[in-house]
């Protein structure tokens, strides 16, 4: 039972990752870059310098979207957003 459950979870996570990659390609290709993870749950977006991060976070929050800034995970990651 456990192995079947893990296999199903892997399939679901892979499908969700693919959905996210498609959305990023469609909507974010001109404002961010990213690598497709071969494992793990997170995609790290590197936002272009022309976008003010503080404004991005406040606008997202005003629309009910909570973004995870990279700097809460690593001090040198000010231009990154972690997606899960």
TrEMBL record:
Single Gene Ontology MF annotation: transaminase activity
InterPro entries the record matches: Class-I_PLP-dep_aminotransf, PyrdxlP-dep_Trfase, PyrdxlP-dep_Trfase_small
Domain of life: Bacteria
Species per Swiss-Prot/TrEMBL record: Bacillus wiedmannii
Single biological process term from Gene Ontology: alpha-amino acid metabolic process
Entries under SUPFAM superfamilies matching the protein: PLP-dependent transferases (SSF53383)
Name this polypeptide is given: PLP-dependent aminotransferase family protein
Cofactor(s) this protein cannot do without: pyridoxal 5'-phosphate
Magnesium in keyword set: no
